[in-house]
Amino acid sequence: FHKMRCVVAAEFLLLQLFCPFLFLSIDLSPFDRSRTPLYEFHGAHGGKMVEFAGWSMAVQYRDSHIVSHTHTRQRCSLFDVGHMLQGALSLFTSSSGGILDDLIVTKTDQGYLYVVSNAGCAEKDSAHMKVREFKAAGHDVDVEFLEDSLIALQGPSMVRVLQPGVCDDLGKLTFMTSVLTPVFGIAGCRVTRCGYTGEDGVEISVPSKAVVSLTEKLLANSEVRLAGLGARDSLRLEAGLCLYGNDIDETTTPVEAGLVWTIGKRRRLQRDFPGADVVVPQIKEKTQRKRVGLISAGPPARQHTPILAPGGQIIGEVTSGCPSPCLKQNIAMGYVEVRKKAVPALVSKMPFVPTKYYTGQ
C-alpha cells in the first residue's frame, strides 16, 4: 500500500462526498516503487520474494508460513507492509454501488487525515478523489505522499515488546487510534493500533532511513519473528477479513460483502455517496447475494471453486480459501445466492478464529 497525508482546512473533511464512511479515504501513488526499504533486509534473513500488486515482497522466511502463522497467534510477528498507503475502515464506492477500494483512515491530532490503501488500486483511487476539482472550487486541500516505511507488529506479545520503546502508555492506545511518538529512540514514527491478522497489534510508520534499525531492535526481542505474505493471508482469512481483488471488487456492494457497518447512519439518511441509490435499498430490503464463511473437508477450496447446493446446482463461488493452522480444518469465504437454500453443514460464521482487538476494556 502507499502512505500519504491529507491536510484540510478547519473541520472540512476532504472527499466527504466521495466516500460512504464517516471519514474520507485516499490512495494516491504517482511514484513507481517496486521494492520497500526492507528489500535487502528480507534477502539477508532468508525471505522468499514474490511479486504482489507490483511490489517485491517476502512471502515467507526460513520457517514455513504455517510456523509464522502460529507464532503470530501465540507470541508476536513483524510484517513489512511498506507496500501500503497509510483509522477507520472505509470504502470507495462506484456509481453502481461496487467497491473501488477499502482503506484505513486515521484522523490525527496534527490536523490531517492519515490514509492507508491498496497499492493495486492507486490509479483509480487517484481519479476517484478529484483533488483538482476540490481545489478549483476554492477548498483548501493538500495531499502529501509519504515516503516513510510501514511495518506491522502483530500478536499477543506486542505490548510487552513495544512498551519499553515508547513513552506513551499503550494501555490508552485502543483499536484504530494513533499516536505520533519516537519508537526505541527513532523520531518521527506514527503508531496505529490496527492490523490485518485479527490479533492485537500495531502498524508503525517510520522514516525509511531508520526502518532497518527499528526492525533489528524489534527482532532483538526473542518474542518477535519475521512473517511474510503467506502467513498474513491465512491469518486474515481466519479473522474473516476481506482481500481486495479476491473477496471484494467493483462488482461487489458493501451489503453483499457484509460491510454495511462501514456506512455511517448519516450517510444512509443523506445518501450522499456514489452508489447510494443501489446500496441503501439493499440495506433495507436485503440482497440476493451474500459473503459467507465455509468449512470443508478434503482438499482446501481455492478461489473460483464453485459452491454447490445438495442437488448439485451452483449457488455461488469461493473467493478465498486455505487450511486453517489454528482450527486444523479447511476454511474459505465466498458468495452464495441467498434466494436458494443454504447448506448449514458447510456454512460458518466469521471470524473463524475470534479477533483480539484491544478496546481498553
UniProtKB/TrEMBL annotation:
Substrate binds at E203. Coiled coil: none annotated. Pfam families: GCV_T, GCV_T_C. It comes from the Eukaryota. GO terms for cellular component: mitochondrion. Residues 289-338 form the Aminomethyltransferase C-terminal domain. Residues 88-265 form the GCVT N-terminal domain. The glycine cleavage system is composed of four proteins: P, T, L and H. PANTHER family: AMINOMETHYLTRANSFERASE (PTHR43757), AMINOMETHYLTRANSFERASE, MITOCHONDRIAL (PTHR43757:SF16). Belongs to the GcvT family. This is Aminomethyltransferase, mitochondrial. It comes from Denticeps clupeoides.
